[in-house]
Amino acid sequence: MSSHPDTPQMIRAFDADGREILVAREQWRDNVLVGAIQQNWNDADQLAGLIIQSLNDGFFEEMVRPAERLMELDANPERAIVLQAIVYMKLGRLDDCERVLLDFCAQHGETGIVLTNLAKVHAERDDDAKTLDTLWRALQLDPNQDNGLGWYEAIHRDVGGDAAGITAMRKVAALPHSWRAQLWLARGELGSHNTAGALALYRESLSRAGQPIPGDLLMQMSGDLGNAGCIAEILELAGPHFVAEAHGLPVGNNLIKAHLHLGQRDAATRILTQLHAMNRPDWKEHLAYWDRELAQ
């Protein structure tokens, strides 16, 4: 198997007690990954999750057969085709990547995430015009793609500087159903000490996002407000929308911190109790920290 420069040599995992462990890459592949593939071979959701994690860990060649199997199993054809396309792209199989994406569009119609991945194929071939055109079509279909939006802004900023990047974000923010671009514009307003402008953008974002509010919206908004010292505004804007099962530790952590900053220990304890009830081993260390803080 070829080795990529950014391939992790140790795989991060958690034991039954929530403690982080590191496993050698070859040991993980031979002793864990093979068995996990077999165990999840007939479960589309579990197999998709395994593929995503394995791609993050740098196992590309090993995911060819699981991705092809997911195509047979998955009731969500978009998820299956995107994961298959990513596997092919990681292996440099651009023609195969383009083929499966175009076949999906012909059968199911274009979607934002599929077109964004098609734009990546054009980018790998250094076709800048086709890349930008395809990416814009992708954002028109789904303006809230995190990677696609950031990429679109970066393309314009690289050519025309920060002002061009802001203009690109505003163009996306004007699309129907856009809420993510407003978050990035709000961050810029906070950086310019225009708190009122930022709050207006956050309220617009929340009003467009639907229910439940996406966790990454609440996480970025609460984090940026905290960095700007707007603690009460975190609780005003993010607090009413928090659902532990949907938003978890990333948002809950920011809310606990805000409540404690304002001396609202009972409210912080309520959120901490909700997070403990999720029984997430990978949260154990973080929650123990807040247990200690609240015990003081």
TrEMBL record:
<protein>
    <recommendedName>
        <fullName>Beta-barrel assembly-enhancing protease</fullName>
    </recommendedName>
</protein>
<dbReference type="InterPro" id="IPR011990">
    <property type="entry name" value="TPR-like_helical_dom_sf"/>
</dbReference>
<dbReference type="InterPro" id="IPR019734">
    <property type="entry name" value="TPR_rpt"/>
</dbReference>
<keyword id="KW-0802">TPR repeat</keyword>
<feature type="repeat" description="TPR">
    <location>
        <begin position="112"/>
        <end position="145"/>
    </location>
</feature>
